[in-house]
């Protein structure tokens, strides 16, 4: 496994060296290199430098050009505009760099030099409740971040902070005690659908009783006390709700083609034993104070409409613990027992104030500090086609399973229409890979913070910024490679490249840099954009450069097959990091 230096960083380094040779008085300065339409790269760094040195930027640029030694990477360099450097690199360097990438299983992408441990909190549905599109976002974005971080060498611990604790369980358990056959199936629940429908029924029935019968309400409240005190019988019934819900969760995650492992599910209940201690530490250190009977943390910049400070309540006046106490305990656990250096929370932006207060509290308590920091990767709301939060016509939240079913159905129709030599089974399999991929891609391709419209027609379209377009590019390459027969991909650095070949090659070479940026800024949408551009570059290349033409000399065929192959491998790897399949045939 050898990591490969990208052409961008090779050029950047050479220009930086020439810069300090030509202008020693400038000290170390960045050439500020970027891809450009005019040449392959453009360096803008001399403008700021000229200002600093009070010189003429074009003149300084000319001096840098003169002190740049001739080499086999930079073919041409010229001064343009107010003092930019336009750099063209050799065809040979492009193919040689890609050949080095092709020889490596990781496509030459380097590991982070100084990895840490990130605990990713994502895919956190709630027990006895239906999953909705919000849970989809957390799961999809979180899973992509897990894969991307792991790929860069970060140690990742996954945590599914499911909602499995709280007062509603008193109501549910009490109802089950009084209606013992409600969760019975003929044996265990056989499907997620069945599990969820009995949970739903039970939830509704117990809620109705709770709201209408004061005596039941009192018994339900007592039940919460038993639950929190760890009463055996109560806990056993609670466990049945959790187990039943997990059958449902797993079925949804399975449909989402997402691997969730049982040991990584540590729900709110998992921190129950720490709550008291967490509160004691906060109170004794003075981070939290008593206010109207509750244990609270105050912040100068968090105020209600009346101008009074709104506290984070860690313990209610009735002695109960809430969401905040659990999250604070989870932070202690993740820092102390999991040795986290970063805590990443993939949670709805509507919980941002909660996390802001929780993180600040944890900093005051010393649990977070310069070595350990916490970030919320906050995501926006999923909107319907009308631009309003996604609801059914009856005004209810849309069930995630219904959405996924519909996506797969639409995608299957698209696959069927295009399919030439696919069997029914293959159509069904591709339909689900394309449909689920489309849902994930739509979610990942806009920046997480923004709201987006859930528009299935657009998502499964073959044209435009969709996963289907990328999957088709991949499948087309595989079809070319199959058709090539005895001709095998092989790099030929001695050949001259066509413009579309250069553009494709240079884009492939950027993969590692894009990944590094995506990993450090938690921005998976930039990987999605990169892959879409890569597929577009491939489409242009395929239009302009015949690969398997009889008129082509053998070396040209091999070199073009080589470009096809490394493009396919990059697409495949990139899609895999986003949790999207790349079928070999479509
Ligand atoms: N279960 C919560 C919900 O459905 C999300 C949990 C987020 N994670 C956390 N550590 N608070 O909204």
UniProtKB/TrEMBL annotation:
Residues 470-586 form the DALR anticodon binding domain. It is found in: Cytoplasm. InterPro entries: aa-tRNA-synth_I_CS (IPR001412), Arg-tRNA-ligase (IPR001278), Arg-tRNA-synth_N (IPR005148), Arg-tRNA-synth_N_sf (IPR036695), ArgRS_core (IPR035684), DALR_anticod-bd (IPR008909), Rossmann-like_a/b/a_fold (IPR014729), tRNAsynth_Ia_anticodon-bd (IPR009080). Residues 9-89 form the Arginyl tRNA synthetase N-terminal domain. The keyword Nucleotide-binding applies. Gene3D superfamilies: Arginyl tRNA synthetase N-terminal domain, HUPs, Isoleucyl-tRNA Synthetase, Domain 1. One of its GO terms (molecular function) is arginine-tRNA ligase activity. Its EC number is 6.1.1.19. It is an enzyme of class 6 (ligase). Keywords: Aminoacyl-tRNA synthetase, ATP-binding, Cytoplasm, Ligase, Nucleotide-binding, Protein biosynthesis. GO terms for biological process: arginyl-tRNA aminoacylation. It catalyses: tRNA(Arg) + L-arginine + ATP = L-arginyl-tRNA(Arg) + AMP + diphosphate. A motif ('HIGH' region) lies at residues 125-135. GO terms for cellular component: cytoplasm. Monomer. Belongs to the class-I aminoacyl-tRNA synthetase family. This is Arginine--tRNA ligase. The gene is argS.
